[in-house]
Amino acid sequence: MDEKKKKRGNSWTHRIIVGVLVIIIIISCVGMLKEYLDGKKTEDKYESLASMVQTTEETTTQPETKETEPETEETTAYVSPIDFEALREINPDTVGWIKIPDTNVDYPIVWKEGDNDTYLHTDFEGNSSQAGAIYLDMDSTPDFSGRNNILYGHHMKNGTMFKDVVKYKDKEYFEAHPYFEIYTPERTIHLKAVSAYYDKAQPIVRKTRFKTRESYNAFVQEMLAPCSYAQIPDVDIDSLFILVTCSYEVDDARTFLFAVEVDEDGNVIVSEDPQGGFLESPSTESTSAETAAESTAN
User: What radius of gyration do the chain's Cα atoms show?
Assistant: First the structure.
């Protein structure tokens, strides 16, 4: 009798374990299906948005005048290939559009003053979404004229958002796909990838204000150097662009893709005013040095 009870008890234990495992499998499958459907919905939504707002290739138009004038920078107007008016009707936070050839990266860019959290889990249309949106750091300049322009996007399993950015950690891919663009209402920013690697998330990456040209150049050097195949510019640049997404090599890892502005021929654009736009102007530095020298002499 005891043996029968023991067998019956083992049978119930076995059934309970199997039942729990079945429930776990069902819950996991439901979660995976939901994640897939959410990802597909996000993908379809952004593809539809891209089709709606991408008009033609960028052009410059010359205003009508009574007399024919030679075409110059002053007499031509930029026409973006992106319909920013339509985008801003959907989301006033729109500041640009990023497109990386041969990848899924083809998205609007948003920026919210003083807020780096909203678009982590809110899509371009303002809906709750695991994929969020591609957004510019709150401390970066919304017209992309700042020293450090940091863009964030999730690493989605379905290949959307910034997942393709991790491909640049492969040297061959990096060298074969160096160029991409950011479009704004005012201009097209032609970019060239110059470094890519993974590292832990570090606050210094978000630095946007620099005292001097020397401190900025040192920052650029520090940011690009960890990549063994980095193409560090040997000229003074005005802006660095950083694309950031999650990475999984170590805890709290990020993949960083660094780029600099180039002309239409792929040449790095050299700063026209290497000493301008810093917290300490050359005259301030000179005055401070002279004051320190006089104090030392006295």
Answer: 26
